[in-house]
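Fold this sequence, please.
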Amino acid sequence: MKTQFHHLKCRRQHYFCALGSHLYEPEAMKMKREIGLIGGVAFISGTMIGSGIFMSPQFVLAYAGSPGASLLIWALCGVVSMFAAMSYTELGTLIPESGGEFIYILRIFGPFPAFFAAITFIVVVRPFGVAAVALGIAKYATAPFYVGCDPPQLLVKCVAAAAILTVAIINVMNVRIAVRIQVVFLVVKVLTLMIIVIGGIVALTQSQRVLVQNLNVDDAFKGTRYSFSTLGMAFYQGLWSYSGWYNLNYVIEELKKPQVNLPRAVVIAVSLVTSLYLLVNVSYLTVMTPKELISSSAVAVTWGNKVLGSWGWIMSLAAALSTFGTLNGSFFSGSRISFVAAREGHMPEILSMAHVHRLTPSPALIFTTVVSLLVLIPGDFQSIVNFHSFLAWFFYATALSGLLYLKIRKPELPRTYRVPIILPILVLIAAVFLVLAPIIDDPQIEYLYVTLFIFSWVLIYIPFIHYKLYPSLLTKLTIFLQLFLQVAPAEKTCDAD
């Protein structure tokens, strides 16, 4: 990769000369370690709590077939997320670099598989996630105006597109505002979930018979669907709600004392979110029958109308604001994948650059915005989540297999944090199930299309990554975009506080 780094340095120097200014020093482009333990907890939990808990419960229940199986799946999703996050913590302390799956696969298995991880997350997984979260915002924002019926799809997608553009502009313009939004909306998220939990407790104390009827305590698992496909889809929807357990690994170069704060933040955040999710689902089933929950297009709004009456619209607003915070966090962490992949020479170098004044990764943010808007046009929430989870868990499994390799073949590596080898093995088994179950039990041609799309990028890898071809036209385009966007390459954070 020395050739690629040389190109980056030359581009930066050319940029400074082209501007005719010496004000933009390279040191100013370095990332700083500004995320502490509290910030780490807020970052993980703030990204996890979003559209999932307000959109997925009806899908989990529909796929699971019974309230008992639904609650069990929610609990198991929390356990899988905790084990996966703890395994990622060991990876993060062994390889303390930002970039998540991409950087782990690159350092362990080499550039070829790492390239496909980068392409998958930058072109598919992250944009799919952004589109799904934006659809969640739109559904809750429009729900109060269409009581008793679903809002028009065109309106929903227009509102979702507006949310994506708003968050993109905020993240491009000012990092400080983006961080403050994340903190403020985390408070909104927790308060919203606590209102649902307390409302469920009040409803339960008023009539315990309602809970017995809705949960069918005598036979809570009656009607459970045991096919691989339905269980896999139920886990897709549940684990979507836990998405974010890995986000601190993407920005570990900006985390203070990562060897200490990463494991602590993971355990605190995932435990908090799992407890809240279980209590919220019990509250949903306390107030609504399983049939009402499954048929609801916005479960928190239905819950609010039943519990809060004429004030039910508050839940719609709170859910939309909560999901907006998740969208903001997704943009914040997602840009680091593009940045690190481009820094390592696996993506166009323009994506590794930040604005010289605002220090925001504007090229990566603009790219994610455009792809997310394209995904939004044909997609719906359920299918977007399913394909997102299918691809994401494939590369989670690849990264976890890398951890197993290091544990077995490289036990001498210094480790400040260790997890029992059984944890990554269990998560790896779960990941293989999540990837293969829907294909084996209910094969759909769309999964083949997505897989072929990912591997078709080998046509890009061979000339530009393996043989390091660098056409002069690409050089001119990069310089033009640097001048137009006023960006320059950012330095890697090498110190380890």
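Confidence is low (pLDDT under 50) at residues 1-28. The chain has 22 helices and two strands.
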